[in-house]
Amino acid sequence: MSKYRKNPNPIPVPTPVTKPFWDATREHRLLLQRCGKGHVFYYPRTHCPECLSVEWEWFEASGRGRLYSYTVARRAQGPEFAEDVPYIIAAITLEEGPRMTSLLVEADPDNVAIDGAVEVAWDDVSPDISMPYFRPLG
To answer: What is the pTM of this model?
Structure first.
């Protein structure tokens, strides 16, 4: 089912805290959290990591950002990834501020540009989960 990975496992298992995030991915929407003071954060949590507020909301992110850093995995991190090497593990600075670690897809592992513009590329890995990977823009 995955268009970017030969073996889509492991597939995330939503928890009560992460369920809204994963429910939105099924609709190809990237959700982030924002506290009442305006701090935006990712990964899903029960409180703001900046001010510890428990008053926050979900909002839809643009799905765009810039490549902050990356590494090319030329040896699989586990048997689930063996058929996918080489693959690019990327840290993306989202337009909204937080950093998100994901895979960089549709990119040549030997020609990746730090600070290059990227956008989310959805990969439907199961009927309930779509993975937010990223691809270079332009």
So the answer is: 0.94
Q: Tell me the C-alpha distance between 123 and 26, whole Å.
A: 10
Burial string for 38-55 (b: 16+ CB within 10 Å, else e) reads ebbbbebeeebeeeeeee
Query: Radius of gyration (Cα) for the chain, nearest Å?
Result: 15
- In DSSP notation, the chain reads --SS-SS-PSPP---TTTHHHHHHHHTT--EEEEETT--EE-S--SS-TTT--S-EEEEE--SEEEEEEEEEESS-SSGGGGGG-SEEEEEEEETTS-EEEEEE-SS-TTS--TT-EEEEEEEE-SSS-EEEEEEE--
pLDDT tens-place string over residues 19-71: 999 999 999 999 999 999 999 999 999 999 999 999 999 999 999 999 999 99
pLDDT digits (tens, 9 = 90+) for 77-108: 889 999 999 999 999 999 999 999 999 999 99
User: What type of residue sits at position 25?
Assistant: T
